[in-house]
Amino acid sequence: MEPDELVEELRAMRHGAGSPSFGDIAIGVSRVRRERGLTPEQARVGRTTVYDAFRLGRIRLDLELVADIVRALGGSEERALDLSTPGGRVVAPEVQSEGVPVEAGISWRFVAGVLVGCVVLNLAGRVLVDALALPVYLDMVGTAVTAIVLGPWWGALVGLSTNVVGAAPSGPESIPFALVNVAGALAWGYGARRWSLTRSIPRFFVLNVLVALTCSVVAVPILVLLDGGFNGHGTDQVTEAVLALSHSLWASVTVSNVLTSISDKLIAGFVALTVIEGLPRRLRAWAPDDWMGGPQEAPPAVRARSGTPDPV
């Protein structure tokens, strides 16, 4: 059995077990090993190690770990032995058909393409907003895509690059706001990968709102302290309206920015969702394992072998 086929089996079993978190599976694996007579230190397995066992693109899998995961998910001993040989390894070809090494699971060419493409996507959004004088930003769609697909710090790199490159046409005033883009990337990335907030549409909605609030916490002091609350953006009209009522610059900038940021991040987040869903399955696999339900996307044959019913 090829490694990816085995991973699909594990994903289907996890879904059939109610999609427990990787931390819970790690606890279950440790318990199985202790019952086998190992000491707590010997039995311990990290959440990341378990997560990696569910990741497509591997060329090697620790089949002893696979067997223990099957047992931790409630599979029978026969099923565990059927999928593994204790201490064995499954080995796939060293390279993909186009010659890209898969040991790291992803090619640097792909990473570079995503980074450059997402910076361009951010800048295109900024150009659109400037041209139409829209009261949103739309300069973080690429940041969201990168943070979710590659990870939070890759997203932070895209966010930082966007503001640095964007300083050429718009001036250095945009550079301090790189901190906002970085904060958004970290919120999207960690929200997706640590808090499973991309498992469903309602969770994803919450994630985008949290990203918006995170960005506002960073943006408001920059706007007030460096720009006096107004920076020539379409949101200035909202700030002026709130200022007329509250007579407080900090309050007006905060209210204006939060309202605008929530709208902006919801748009950016769901556009990013569309972009990610449009990626080839092999590339989309680098999104969090439980992305929009994750394991239920296993092929029907895998679901049938694992006893997992087809989704309805």
UniProtKB/TrEMBL annotation:
Annotated transmembrane regions: 106-124, 136-154, 174-192, 204-226
Q: Where is this region: Disordered?
A: 290-312
Enumerate the UniProt keywords alphabetically: Membrane, Transmembrane, Transmembrane helix
Taxonomy, superkingdom: Bacteria
- Looking at the keywords, is Transmembrane present? yes
Tell me the protein's name: ECF transporter S component
